[in-house]
Structure formats: structure tokens, C-alpha cells
Amino acid sequence: MDLPSEQSRSLLQHLPSERAGKSDGYCSRILRAQSNRKEVNNEFRLRVEGDPESYQPGSTYRVLLTASSPSYFRGFTIIAQREGAEGDRDEDYIGNFQIIDEEETQFMTNCPPAVTESTPRRHTSIQVFWTAPRSGSGCVLLKASIVQKRIIYFQDEGSLTKRMCEKDTTEKPLLDCCACGTAKYRVTFYGNWSEKIHPKDYPRRANHWSAIIGASHSKSYVLWEYGGLASDGVKQVAELGSPVKMEEEIRQKGDDVLTVIKMKAQWPAWQPLNVRAAPSAEFSVDRTRHIMSFLTMLGPSPDWNVGLSAEDLCTKECGWAQKVVQDLIPWDAGTDSGVTYESPNKPTVPQEKIRPLTSLDHPQSPFYDPEGGAITPVARVVVERIARKGEQCNIVPDNVDDIVADIAQEEKEEDDTPETCIYSNWSPWSACSSATCEKGKRMRQRMLKAQLDLSVPCPHTQDFEPCMGPGCSDEDASTCMLSEWITWSPCSASCGIGSRSRERYVKQFPDDGSVCTLPTEETETCVVNEECSPSSCLVTEWGEWDVCSATCGLGMKRRERLVKMPPTDGSICGAEVLEVEKCMMPECHTIPCMLTPWSDWSDCSVTCGKGLRTRQRKLTSPVELGDCTEELEQVEKCMLPECPIDCVMSEWTEWSECNKSCGKGHTIRTRMVKLEPQFGGDSCTETIQRKKCKIRKCNRGQANSDEKKRRKEQREKRRSKTSRVDATSEHPGCKMRPWSSWTDCTKLCGGGIQERLMTVKQRFKTAQLSSCKDRKEIRACNVHPC
């Protein structure tokens, strides 16, 4: 981790240090300054996105520090302190910050609970995540300090402090269900993600919703939830749009699951809210499995989804909810760090928690709004009760809607499939073995993907049912048999809106001699070359789609068309001649990996500073079941106390002249401290050394000669004062200003330096640059030991 920036260090230099002992820690010294200043600074604001009054334990919130124009700040510090605490102990700081942008923010080295700037530069806003502490932690004060041209200290109240208390979790508990019997529901998904409503970077070609996967289940099973980590099944839905792994996870939950909910993918994604063709599915609930959850991928996207999590259909009146309607906004699965619809894959390591997308996530996000407004919903889900079965015990009497819904009750289909057998979905029904009105049969099949208990046999993988050829009916003798439709004719218009038709013929007339009333011709409108201007080109209709590139799972398919006539004005044809989209084939034959639990994390790879640590798990499933693609090792960063930094000193100066002209004296030399020791490094040694010196013995009468010498030096000093005004003799060609006064010594003890300057006052035309320039003198000072 980087060292604190210059702004953070300058802040600490202004803090008092009157308290000693254990409480005199780095964090507490920061906080102690808050009692010294009570100024109001409304140009800076610390807020939590959504402005909540309370926090949900374990939930993650976005914390923003902003400056109103034209203000800015160069440095900052943010902490989360328990209300009423002094800040002397680690327990006084609750919750955990998470860095969003390492170029903007970092944890403070000597105060790990605090967040500060990474680079000292102008900021108008920064943001970090804060995860609330566990239940029972009480109220928290989120506080910020600002470093601009001056220091704005922490406040107990005002715009740089946000107070939040724990949310009362008794408001909406997930209680045991008291309803009787069972209920049957239909869930319908209406996509509302369109270019008109969400225009920024909308992916015109590949927009779609993946196949929907979910379940009705007990409250002890969680498919996904905000603040939780995505399972492997959720990750595959979020990143690939594949529900295969998710369905396996659901079916392995046994009695915790009553119904698996599945709906087909939607291509394209947009669906008006009143379209009947919106995908839907039916499911059942009972007293122990009264929760409903599902999810679907917003495609293309890094790992964005929508869905419901733990929707309780059991009412507190011991009945079954009649209808649930909910608008959906996308959420991030925490497995990919992309910020746009079609960002390249960028795995998030380590994996982050599931969270809702917001309009302030990233400026390149398609949902970005600098004002921080709410995201417009991208879908709506309607869950409607269609039947009840068994004796009911609801406290509130049935209304008309309840009675009408129960008229069409349907028996629950029996499924004798053992829970230890995991199958793929049934394939579509094959064509009937009879092409006439004679009875035939058709077949569908499924694949056994895993047999978790070899002692329990898995039933059939093929299913048959009786059928007849196209256009036939076993019960109606007046039915005529028709051929398949012939391919559509070319569009009647080569530019704009036209029409096309297709035909079929009667293969066998009704046995009773009646006229066949089924249509043998169909006509529909078609559009070719929407633009008919001189700058547009004429193209053919799209050809048929190629075969899917994959034989199982997710693949791609393509189709093409040709340019019939280029633009008449000579410009380049801009029409698309190639179209590519995803295609989903039957699930691939995969065997779930059987793995040991993760081992404990290893020791950090370093003894101080930044390093890495690892953990492993082993594959326990038999090799003959196939390769396992699950990761067997994980690596993450670790941080130990900073490495010691030893004192760094300059080289020794030359020995000075002896301080006596005769007899015994001494001479000295000095050196300076270039870098103070940090984090327990070796301390600095001496900065001054003395040694004896002896020039010669002093002769008799030396005192008189010394007096003469002293008088001579005084005369020379007086002469030098008069020569300071004009030093042209030392600097031919220019007039110099007098020497400045010596500067203050850089250190109070241990050897410092002083300097003085002589600058050029006037340069004559005959002056040479090398002989006429500013001068600087440096000398040692305060060389006595500290």
C-alpha cells in the first residue's frame, strides 16, 4: 500500500499531541483536532447515495464527497466512527470501506480504517463503498476532513458529517408461512429495455434477455440476494446467459425446492408492456416453499441481470397473494468489472458482492447520470395467482377475484423423477412418423447429466406420444390434410414497403366430402431498403440463418444479403450485409465437479509490505467423468506492516581548519540526515565528529602577536564593509548587490546548513556572462549533538 500523500502528512503536522500512551495513536490524533474548530463549510458535502437515514447491517453503500463549483479540494480523509466513541481503539471504527478507484483513493497507512487520496491533485468529487457493520453496532458517524489551501477539520455536525443508525429489522421479517393447501401462479416477464427509453450506447443488433431461470423454494435457500456473492450458477447466467449450471444448483437443493421456473430467451429484448406474447411460466407454492426467486441476463452486458429475490407469496393473513407487480432495475453480479454493454471480459478478482447498478457507477456506463437520478426500470414482472388446491385457512374471506381464479384449477402433474437424477431439458418433439392421417408416433428425449446415487436407478430418457400427419385430426373426419408452407416469395418492392406471399396445397381432402376451409395462401408486408434516397443502396432480402456454430450450449449464427445496386450519387453503401446473433442449442453433457472445501489462506509471501497469499481445493470426482473447469487455486493480495526504512545520511564534509594558530586545538567535520528512519528502521548515528590538532608550539610573546593579529582582522573587516557596496573589483563588468543575511539554520542541533546570496545589480556592456553572475555561499551551523 502506498504511503500517505503530502496533504495527509501536512494535516498530521497540525495536530496536537498532548495525549500519551496507547490512546495516542495515528487515528486518534486525527480526530483530536475536531474540538479545535467549529467552522461551517457548505461548499463541501459528504453524503450517502440515496440519502438513507439508517443502514442495513452487512449492506454496502456508496459514499460521496463533493465540492460545489468553483470549489475543489486537494486532499481528504474519511472515517466511519461509532457514535460517542473517542477514536482511541480499533473498536471505535465500524464497518469497512472499499476502494472504487485506486488512482483516486487509498487506505491510510498508519490508520487503516481511514480512506485518503492517492494522488495530491485537484478533486471535485470522490466516491468509495462502505459496508455497514453487523447487527447491534449502534449508530455511526461518517466524517470527512478537507485539505485545500488550508485545513478544514473534522466536524461533529454539518455538511461533512453523515449520521446513520441501524435499520429496525423487525419492519419486514421473513416469517414462517401459516397458509394452508397449495397455490398455483403464473409469472410473466415484460421487457422494457429499448433504445427509446435507454438510448445511450444501446446495442441494436444483439440486445436480448437470456433464458429465465428460478424456483419456488423455502426461506432457507437463497438463489441470489443483494450483499451476497454470486454462485457459479448465477455467474454463468450473468456472464453467458446460460441457465444450465443454475438449474443444476436448484435441483440439488431437494426438498427446499418445489418448482423449477424456466422461460425462453427473448430476441430482441424490447417488449411493450401489454404484449401477450411475453414469456411466462407457471409454478406452485406450499406452506414450506412459499418463496419465489428468478433472474435473467441483460444481454449483451458484463454481468448485469434483473430478477426477484425471495418474494414471499404467503400473506400474514394466512392466505396466498393474489397479484404481485414489480418494476425491475439491473444489478451487478460482482464477477466482471466491465462498465459498458459490450466491454471486453475483465474478471473481478476477488469477486465482489451483488449490488444494484446506480446512475453514478461510471461516466461510461449506459445508465450514467451526473445528477445521480434513479435508473429507469428495464423490465416489469407480474406474478398472478391462477389456482388454489386443498383446504384454505385464510383469515380474510375470499373476494370475487379469488373465486374466479379457483374455477380453473388444474391438477399438479406428477413427476416420478428421483431427486438424485439430474437431466437436461426435454428436446422438442420430433416430426410425426406418419405423413398421412394414419396414426403414428413422435418422440422427444433428454440426457442424463449426473446420477448422484448409483443405488437409485434413473428412469427413461425417451418419451413417446401418438400423432398424425399435418392437418389431420383423430376426432374430426372433416379435417383436410395440408402440405408444409412453401418459402416466402420475394418482396414486391425493391425499396420501401411491399408485400410477399407463400402457399401450401391440399394433400388430402376431408373424408366426408366437405370443402377444405383452411387457408392455402398467406400474405404479409415486407420492408426492403427503408431509405429510398439517392444516397441509399438497394439490397436483397436477408438469406436464411446459417446452422448454429455450436452443437450444444451457446453458439452463434449468421445470415447475409447482397447489394443489388449501389447509391446513384456515387457514395458508399452503408447498409448492413451481415447479421450475427447468439443461438442456444440443447444443454451440453456436463458433469458437476465434486470438490473439497477451500483450504485456509496461506501465509503472506512477504514478511512486510505488499504480498500475495493463496488457497487451494482438490477435485474428488472420478477422472472418467470428464474434465473439470472449476478453479482449484485462488490468489489474493495481502498487506503486512510496512517494511522498516533505515536512516540515510550524507557523506562527511572535509575536516575544518584547526581552531588555533598555535598550540593544541581541534578540527571538526559534519554530515546531514537525508531520510529519517521509519517503521522501526535503524536510527541515525552522529552528525558531527571532532579530532585534536596541533600546528606548532606557541613562542614567547605570542599573546602580543595574537593581539596584533586581532587588531589586523578588525581593520580588514572595516575595509570589507566599505567594499560591499561596490564589488566590481571581484566581478569586472558588473555591479553587485551586498551579500544578503544568512538564512536560519535548517536544524536546531545535529548539524544543519545556512546560505546567503549576492545578486547582480547592474551588468555593463563589456561584461562576460561567465564572470558576472549571482553567487551563493553555504556554511554549516548548529553542529553540536542533539
Structure commentary:
The structure is a single chain. The protein has 6 helices and 44 strands. Strand 17 (291-299) and strand 18 form a beta hairpin. Among the domains are: 44-166, Reeler domain (Immunoglobulin-like); 182-389, F-spondin domain (Immunoglobulin-like, Sandwich); 538-585, Thrombospondin type-1 (TSP1) repeat (TSP-1 type 1 repeat). Strands 2, 4, 6, 7, 9, 10 and 11 form a 7-stranded mixed beta sheet that branches. Residues 1-24, 34-38, 407-414, 473-477 and 725-729 have low confidence and may be disordered. 8% of the residues lie in helices and 31% in strands. Helix 3 packs antiparallel against helix 4 (244-251). It is elongated. With 786 residues, it is mostly beta strands.
Unreliable segments of 5+ consecutive residues: 1-24, 34-38, 407-414, 473-477, 725-729
Assign the CATH architecture of the domain at 182-389: Sandwich
Annotated CATH topology of the domain at 182-389: Immunoglobulin-like
Structural class: mainly beta
Report helical residue fraction: under 10%
Proportion of residues in extended strands: 25-35%
Mean pLDDT: 78
Largest sheet: 7 strands, mixed
SS element count, helices = 6
The level-1 CATH class of the domain at 182-389 = Mainly Beta
Number of strands: 44
First CA to last CA: what distance? Answer: 34 Å
CATH H-level homologous superfamily name of the domain at 182-389: F-spondin domain
Could you say which overall geometry the principal axes of the C-alpha atoms support?
A: elongated
**Cα radius of gyration in angstroms:** 41 Å
